[in-house]
Structures are given as C-alpha cells and as structure tokens.
Amino acid sequence: MTRTLWTRARIEGAAGDADELLAEGGRILAVGRDLPRQGARIVDCDGRLMTAAPVDCHTHLVFGGDRAGEFEQRLDGATYEEIAQAGGGIRASVRAVRSMTVEELVAESLPRLDHLLSEGVSTVEVKSGYGLSVEAEMNMLRAARALATRRKVRIRTSWLAAHALPPEYAGRATDYIREVAIAGLDAAHAEGLVDAVDGFCERIAFSTEELAPLFDRARALGLPVRLHAEQLSHSGGTAFAARHGALSADHLEHATEADAALLAAAGSVAVLLPGAFYMLRETVRPPVAAFRAAGVPMALATDCNPGTSPMTSILMTMNMGATLFRMTVPECLAGVTAHAARALGLATETGRIAPGLSADLALWDVERPAQLVARIGFNPLHARIFQGETA
Ligand code: NIG
Ligand code: FE
User: Fold this and answer.
1) ipTM greater than 0.90, yes or no?
2) Which residues bind Fe(3+) (predicted)?
3) N or C: which end of the chain has fewer CB within 10 A?
C-alpha cells in the first residue's frame, strides 16, 4: 500500500505544532510532528498551506446549451421568474438536454468539472433536473456517474426531477410527481444512479404538498433528502425539509429565524449559494446571523448552472460568502470543506483533516486561509491530492 508523508506543511486546523501528514492506502493515518518515515514517499510542502480539499456540495454541472441570452434579458429588466413563466429558464435547458446523448452531456460537462478541479475540489455533487422525463433525468445522472470514471473525483448525485414542471404536464403537477419524479426515482435508484433526492420548493416550481409523496418515497428507498428552499419567496420549504430530516436546505435567502431553529433541531446544513444571489442581483440575504446563533452548520457551494449561477469557482464562492453574506474566513473555509461534506452525508469520509478520513487535500501557495478568500480571480493551488495521490 502506498504510504506518503507530507512534511513542512501549515496544516489548517491541526493541533499545536503539527506540520506533517501521513497517509496510507488513500486514508489519513496521522497528523503530527516527526512522524515515522519508513517506507513512505516524502513530499516536502515547503511551508505551504494544506487544507482539506474543497467539496462543491450543490451543482447542476451536467447540462447542455447556453442561456447567456437570458442574462442579457435580465440586464434589460426582465426578472428570473418572468423568464421562467415565458418558457425560458430551466425549461430552456430542458430542451437542450433532451436532445443530447449521455456522451454529449459528459463532453459538455467535463470542462466545467476540470475548472472546479483546478481549484483543488475533490468531491462534486451533481443534480439532474433539466431532463424532466424519466429517461432524460436518468441520462443526466448516467452522465454524472460517467464523470467519475473520467477524472479523479468523487461524484454524489441528486435526483432533482422535481425542479420544474415540463410543458406536457402543465396544470398537472401531481401527475408529474407520480409519473416522472417518483416512477423515475424508482428506476434510477434501481440502476444505482441516485445518492440523494432533491426538489425545488417555490411558487414557480413545487409546493410542499406536491413534494411530500416524493420525499416519502425517498424515505422508503432509504435515500436522504435535501431541498431548494426559500430562494425567491418564503414557501415553507425549510420547515418541510427539517421535518423530513433533510441533509440540507439550500439557498435560504428568504428563510427566517424560526427556520434556523428548525434546521438546528433537525441537524440539517444550510447550503448558501452566493453565485445565484449575485447573478439575480438579489437584495434579501440569507439569515447568516440567525444560522450562526442557532448553531446551524453553513456550507457554501457554486450552484454551477446555466442560468442563475454560471460559476465554476469554489474560490470565488468563498469570496462571495464573505463579501455578500458577511461570513468569516473560517466560516467560508468550513463552508466549502467540512460543512459541505456533511451536506452530502460524507462527514466521516472527506472535508476534514483527521485520521481515518480520505486523504483529499489541497496544497496552496499561501500562508493562511484569509489569502484564499480575499483574492479574486487568482488561483494559488499548488497541488490537489485525491485519496492520497496527487491528481
Ligand atoms: O439552484 N433554484 C433552482 N435551480 C437552480 C437554477 C436553475 C436554472 O435556472 O437553471 C438554482 O439556482
Ligand atoms: Fe440549485
């Protein structure tokens, strides 16, 4: 089994004067000082900052087509909801995805994945949600699974068929949930395509009543749930997610203090998505102070998608978490590492530097985390380590 010893590192979060990390077989064995060198390949970090590798816990990375035209419409004054109601938005991406093969989806998605990896990311969550038919939703997750065979990365999938109502189901949301979201979930789960079930709870998407049977089926299949909640309005998604013991509730611009208390009691992560907030020029901020006070773990993610957050930078996401949401540097770093891993149910697998966890690490040409968060458009990654190997 390969043994590697990283020496002379500034190990973020390590106790005392620890400056070495020993990994074997892809797992962290020990963090400390003067660790045993026998049989180990030695890597001198020369004083660089070592963090857990970032985890991007909320993305719509697999998609096709381009929606820059909607960006221009919004610059002209149209709102996201108006564009969606006129058949654009998510439904424009659906038209593109339905016309593509799995291999085409993979090919379009790889450059986005590569950009995330260039900033040290080890783990990426990828949602369906632009197919909105059983087969097209399954193809999206087949493409997501295929990404993990093309790159050294851990992919976690979410079944997001309940993202929007396709035109052929107009006025028949309940039928859509039963015939596509639930029936498709059964089929996709049988094929091993699903790690979690997600939904979009919003007045332009689905209500908690419509989503309830889907979440019930997720529970019956033993799958964790998460939810896009309170992004554009307060729709009760957070309370609903908390009631279902969700791994996370995501977006949360319109969440309240009461919602924060519910998330805390449920042990759910608040996943904040400053890219979407920025692109939509939102003015209502997620209640970060309430999450902090209630002890809700906050994660940050790119929300990479063709419409509201065409962003593939986890570093920029941290910067936005600080500047737009007033999160501290330690909160931003935990937001893209430990708390992001927790939002995926991976808290004991990745996202922290601790013995027993996967050796997913990032080495940066900086001395301290504030330098990662403060700089814009600069990538100081020196090395990305995935499961103990430089990747
Ligand atoms: O997370 N909020 C819903 N879903 C995506 C946007 C998807 C889209 O516009 O394509 C999001 O922001
Ligand atoms: Fe999203």
Assistant:
1) yes
2) 58, 60, 228, 303
3) N
